[in-house]
Write a structure and sequence with these properties.
The protein is α+β, with helices and mostly antiparallel strands and 134 residues long. It contains four helices and five strands, in the order βααββααββ. The longest helix is centred in the N-terminal third of the chain and has 20 residues.
Length: 134
């Protein structure tokens, strides 16, 4: 897999969640994702950016346009230095929430992505990587 372009976006304020959503949509359009795939990656990115802000205390997202053979995709890595997730399996369960949300963020983001990986260390933060392929 080859990374053809990268950019890092901060997630510190609610307005940054909107900016992440807008930038992810622009990148999805740029690589030629169809409307349904654009909507899926933007929705997943919005959920993960909101989690990064609300539960991780803020962080960054690394957006990468990637190439694997003739396929092009968009890979997003959300990272924070927050409290981490003690039980990832439980956190991935629909309707589980440690806050006041619906508890669909992580599981929903996984279902909306072609690839999903999560790593978290209690007390040291969380990293979630998703990808959507054309």
């Amino acid at each position: 897999m080859t990374v053809t372009r990268t950019e890092t976006l901060p997630i510190r304020l609610s307005e940054d969640v909107v900016r992440v959503r807008q930038r992810v949509r622009a990148l999805a359009v740029e690589i030629g994702l169809g409307l349904v795939d654009q909507t899926k990656i933007v929705t997943a990115a919005s959920e993960l950016a909101r989690n990064t802000l609300d539960y991780g205390g803020g962080g960054d997202v690394l957006a990468e346009i990637v190439q694997a053979g003739t396929r092009q995709g968009l890979r997003l890595t959300f990272e924070d230095q927050g409290p981490g997730i003690a039980d990832i399996e439980q956190a991935m369960t629909d309707h589980y929430t440690s806050g006041g949300g619906l508890g669909l963020g992580l599981g929903g983001a996984k279902r909306l992505s072609n690839e999903f990986h999560i790593a978290s260390t209690p007390g040291a933060g969380t990293r979630v990587t998703i990808a959507r392929w054309k």
